[in-house]
């Protein structure tokens, strides 16, 4: 093949791996440290459209009878009056129910008090979870807070969830190691281990480690290559989920140094633990409630990760707070009974 043609094709391959200008650059750290974030305005425009905040439902009158005196089986939000409860239910329907669905998505026909529809049991648990996050995880969600829309975005099941990976059938050179060398969107389409969520975001998490903290560590301090690979898998996920690079949290001259890290690293530290809390105390206890078709290949429930809320931006919904319009979602959590099993008919 003509050398010029080869050179031209090689240049095309290189160019397609780069961002075409213009690119916005934001300095995140001291000058000379290359702590910069680069953003493509075209990508940001798409993300802004995808993260538009819905118009708040008009406020309800403060007067009127308590909802618990009119409706039966209200276990959460029982301090609202009838109009306030109805307003919030309308909003939740728009936030969670798929297009074309209505109250019947969670309720069983005309009997609104019935718990026969498993989705109602799940929704009750999720309301407790939202209240808990807004009250007890300000270290991560701050005053912005979260609502049902933060994750669902008008989908019955949030777009970004994960399950325990099912059995794999390795074959060929690219499957030498289970859950590796199989580029996965969970880890930024890299060949890193894609079981990082199970290792770090579940009920018995491993420590997030890359290197040992001492020159000659003892056995209890060692960080293995496997741990490093799993950690990088988690970090790739977080980078993709927030639409940022490593320097959003770290000074890359020393990833482990907290003194030279940005404040966002502390926010992320709390966020990892918040995700563990959600998966362990609110989602996994629903295993007996969800029907089989809503579970993963190993029978576990859908769980959350960073992308569930962030969806490609450094702050969910670019930091716009919906909580100010729905303050009832930031009150002390009502005690949660053990979730019931799904009815046989479901």
**N- to C-terminal distance:** 64 Å
As laid out across the biggest beta sheet, the strand order is 1-2
Flag low-confidence runs: 336-346
Task: Count the beta strands.
Answer: 2
- Helix content estimate: 25-40%
Q: What would the CATH topology be? A: Photosynthetic Reaction Center, subunit C, domain 2
CATH class group: Mainly Alpha
Radius of gyration: 23 Å
CATH superfamily membership: Photosynthetic Reaction Center, subunit C, domain 2
> How many separate helices?
10
Largest sheet, if any?
A: 2 strands, antiparallel
Tally of individual domains: 1
Question: Residue-averaged pLDDT, rounded?
Answer: 84
CATH architecture: Orthogonal Bundle
**SSE pattern:** HEEHHHHHHHHH
Report on the structure:
The chain is mainly α. The chain has one domain: Photosynthetic Reaction Center, subunit C, domain 2. The protein contains ten helices and two strands, in the order H-E-E-H-H-H-H-H-H-H-H-H. It has helices spanning 3-16, 41-50, 82-96, 118-136, 138-141, 148-152, 196-200, 225-242, 263-283, 306-310; strands spanning 24-27, 36-39. The protein has a two-stranded antiparallel ribbon. The chain is globular and about 75 Å long. The N and C termini lie far apart (64 Å).
Give a short overview.
The chain is mostly helical and 346 residues long. Helix content is 34%, strand content 2%. The protein has a single domain, classed as Photosynthetic Reaction Center, subunit C, domain 2.
């Amino acid at each position: 093949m003509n050398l010029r043609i080869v050179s031209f094709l090689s240049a095309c391959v290189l160019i397609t791996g780069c961002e075409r200008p213009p690119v916005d650059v934001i300095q995140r750290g001291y000058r000379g440290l290359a702590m910069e974030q680069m953003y493509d305005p075209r990508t940001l425009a798409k993300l802004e459209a995808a993260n538009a905040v819905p118009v708040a439902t008009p406020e309800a009158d403060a007067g009127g009878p308590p909802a618990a005196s009119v409706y039966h089986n209200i276990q959460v939000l029982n301090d609202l009056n009838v109009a306030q409860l109805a307003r919030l239910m309308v909003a939740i329907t728009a936030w969670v129910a798929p297009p074309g669905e209505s109250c019947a998505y969670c309720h069983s026909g005309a009997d609104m008090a019935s718990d026969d529809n498993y989705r109602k049991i799940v929704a009750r648990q999720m309301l407790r979870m939202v209240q808990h996050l807004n009250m007890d995880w300000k270290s991560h969600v701050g005053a912005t807070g979260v609502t049902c829309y933060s994750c669902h975005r008008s989908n019955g099941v949030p777009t970004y969830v994960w399950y325990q990976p099912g059995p794999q059938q390795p074959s060929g050179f690219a499957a030498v190691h289970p859950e590796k060398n199989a580029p996965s969107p969970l880890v930024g389409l890299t060949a890193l281990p894609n079981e990082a969520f199970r290792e770090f975001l579940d009920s018995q998490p491993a420590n997030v480690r890359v290197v040992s903290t001492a020159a000659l560590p003892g056995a209890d301090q060692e960080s293995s290559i496997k741990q490093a690979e799993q950690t990088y898998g988690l970090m790739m996920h977080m980078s993709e989920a927030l639409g940022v690079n490593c320097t959003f949290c770290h000074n890359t001259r020393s990833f482990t140094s907290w003194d030279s890290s940005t404040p966002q690293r502390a926010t992320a530290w709390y966020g990892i633990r918040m995700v563990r809390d959600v998966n362990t105390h609110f989602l996994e206890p629903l295993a007996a409630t969800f029907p089989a078709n809503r579970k993963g290949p190993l029978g576990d429930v859908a769980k959350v990760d960073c992308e569930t809320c962030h969806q490609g931006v450094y702050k969910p919904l670019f930091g716009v707070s919906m909580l100010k319009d729905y303050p009832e979602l930031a009150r002390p959590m009502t005690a949660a009974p053990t979730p019931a099993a799904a009815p046989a008919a479901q």
